[in-house]
Amino acid sequence: MEPVPALEVRELDAWYGHTQALRKVSLLMLEQRITAVIGPSGCGKSTFIRCLNRINDLIPGFRVEGRTLFKGQDLYAPGVDPIEIRLRIGMVFQKANPFPKSIYDNIAYGPRLSGVKDRARLDALVEESLKKSALWDEVKDKLRQSALALSGGQQQRLCIARALAVEPEVLLLDEPCSALDPIATGRIEELLLGLKKSYTMVIVTHNMQQAARVSDTTAFFMLGKLIEFGPTQDIFTNPREKVTEDYITGRFG
Questions:
Q1: Residue 124 lies in a domain
Q2: Mean pLDDT across the stretch 163-185?
Q3: What is the CATH number of the domain that holds 81?
């Protein structure tokens, strides 16, 4: 079967007030694939993935032009509910941000907001989400304890479980491992490779090895522009652009 596009941006421009952060970005992200977004600091990586679930809308003075399509639907079309988009396109941030609640209530928070009241259904969603994020065995006996007592790596897996609990189709991850040690990072990478069977993922990373290990396709950004995009192996072993090669081999960035 041919892979199906999950997300597509066409000629995407983005501004914070008068400052342009993205310039004419066009990119296709396929279902059940991991797309890595790499590039030096301040090149537009985070702005880009935050356009994909309209979380930038919360920033005063932010605006976009161009098209951002999710399964063919324009996410910025009039009448599209950004909250519904954020349920279908989940997000995990750089710094783990559990709510100051129990592990159970962190995971049940989204489903409850979406109207799930049935206790058995909530229990099942909590268990299923924690299993998907490879955390269930570590926390199943302490679901009523504060999520803030977990280690950094566990908190980040909890945030992934919380994003999965509302049953999204896409998961966006903005440098999810940058604050973690190598062992916790390895766990998250393993987890992402396992989740790929069920979800489309876009991951922003500063870590070249991480992009090479987990992603199917890689997009290299610089100064708000998409410089190069293609299969990860090609980008890392045979980049078309000299500037991509310089960044990947550590000559700058």
A1: no
A2: 93
A3: 3.40.50.300
Range of the domain at 199: 5-96+170-248
What's the pLDDT score for residue 1? 67
Q: How confident is the model at residue 192 (pLDDT cuts 50, 70, 90)?
A: very high
CA pair distance 87, 230, nearest whole angstrom: 28
Q: Hey, is 205 helix, strand or coil?
A: coil
CA 49 to CA 41: how far, in whole Å?
A: 14
Is 230:38 a contact under the CB 8 Å cutoff?
Answer: no
pLDDT in tens, 110-141: 999 889 999 999 999 999 999 999 999 999 99
Distance CA 14, CA 205 (A): 20
SS3 238: coil
> pTM (2 decimals)?
0.93
**Total domain count, the chain:** 1
Pairing of strands 200-204, 34-38: parallel
